[in-house]
Amino acid sequence: MFTIKWNGDSVTILDQRLLPVKEVYNTYRHYSDIADSIRNMETRGAPAIGITAAMGIALAAKNIELVSLDGFKEEMNRVCDIFTATRPTAVNLFAAIGRMKNIIQQENDINAIRQLLEKEALAVLNEDVEANKALGKNGSKYLSDGDVVMTHCNAGALATGGYGTALGVIRAALSEGKNIQVYACETRPYLQGARLTAWELSREKIPVTLITDSMSGHFMRTGIIKKVIVGADRIALNGDVANKIGTYSHAVLAKENGIQFYVAAPTSTLDPNTKTGDAIVIEERGVEEVAYIMGVQIAPEGVSIRNPAFDVTPAKYIAAIITEKGIVDNPATQGIGKLLKS
Ligand code: MRU
């Protein structure tokens, strides 16, 4: 299984909208189809959409046939803008596009730009896999033999270049011989927990129990859940974390019940330009995601619906932010500055 693959003249993407019922891979030769695949959730997850955008931009560069350098650069900047507008919250997307834009700005030979963009897109992918493995190792010390660990959404191989962030820490703990069981929250409305995390873990025979989002407090209060670990879409300078809608509620419940709440993310998720979580743009998605479950209508026609896709968990609820470059314990006291320096 892979999430995104570069083929030289095309990009293959696992269609996550069809999981867990069907495992279908689509191959695209045009960048606009790749931008659509981010917009329409065929591929999703903060690191994964950054990688996908980088590959889409590299592919566009190969296909643009313009003689002048200025015309080529103008067209490439337009392509970058299209990817920038696909989704607003995950900062990995903008970090990856920024890397591609630097090459477009700095180089002055079209063929050199094409080659460098391809190399950079592959670097974005490979660095992400390496970062996940490293942060997994860094964070596994927080998980003890016998723990039941709750997670929300999908911060696994499917959301990244591979291995995963929150699930990467769990994978690392398992590889050290610890006996870990995962409680996966279903993650309404888009069901990334039920459809993706439960699928990803069960196909690897990692013990996973699916619960609805509203059950987390019960299983915390009754002592079943020992730790919580989630991924992130953007981490502000003060340690506030934007992640999938519902994360904040779990974090408050964890604090109330004396349960450690961890965030695992590569440093590409850190946003040095955002001071606090209040400044993070929260994506509002279509009402049909709430009104329907897998095509079945569950709400009355025309009822008012809101669908914020993310929420912000203030740093005070977070025991540690785990990255490949190190860990910030108790981020409310120090922010994430030390991770940006190294
Ligand atoms: O809307 P999605 O599925 O793209 O959501 C992003 C996420 O996968 C999660 O918020 C995740 O916890 C962080 S990405 C590893």
How are the secondary structure elements laid out?
Elements (H helix, E strand, L loop, with lengths): L3 E3 L4 E4 L10 E4 L2 H9 L6 H18 L5 H16 L6 H16 L3 H30 L8 E4 L14 H10 L5 E5 L6 H12 L4 E4 L4 H6 L5 E4 L3 E2 L5 E4 L2 H10 L3 E5 L23 H4 E2 L2 E2 L12 E4 L6 E4 L2 E4 L7 H5 L1
Parallel strand pairs: 4-5, 4-7, 5-6, 7-10, 10-14
Antiparallel strand pairs: 1-2, 2-3, 8-9, 9-13, 11-12, 14-15
This protein binds 5-S-methyl-1-O-phosphono-5-thio-D-ribulose.
Give a concise summary:
It is built from eleven helices and 15 strands.
How would you describe the overall organization of this protein?
It is a single chain. The chain has two domains: about 5-135, translation initiation factor eif-2b, domain 1 (Four Helix Bundle (Hemerythrin (Met), subunit A)); about 140-340, Translation initiation factor eif-2b, domain 2 (Rossmann fold, 3-Layer(aba) Sandwich), CATH 3.40.50. About 40% of the residues lie in helices and about 15% in strands. It has helices spanning about 30-40, 45-65, 70-85, 90-105, 110-140, 165-175, 190-205, 215-220, 245-255, 290, 335-340; strands at about 5, 10-15, 25-30, 150, 180-185, 210, 225-230, 235, 240-245, 260-265, 290-295, 295, 310-315, 320-325, 325-330. The chain has a seven-stranded mixed beta sheet, sandwiched between helices. Strands 1-2-3 form a three-stranded antiparallel beta sheet, covered by helices on one side. A three-stranded antiparallel beta sheet has the order 8-9-13, covered by helices on one side. The longest helix has 30 residues, at about 110-140. The mean pLDDT is about 95. The site of 5-S-methyl-1-O-phosphono-5-thio-D-ribulose has 18 residues, from helix 2 and strand 9.
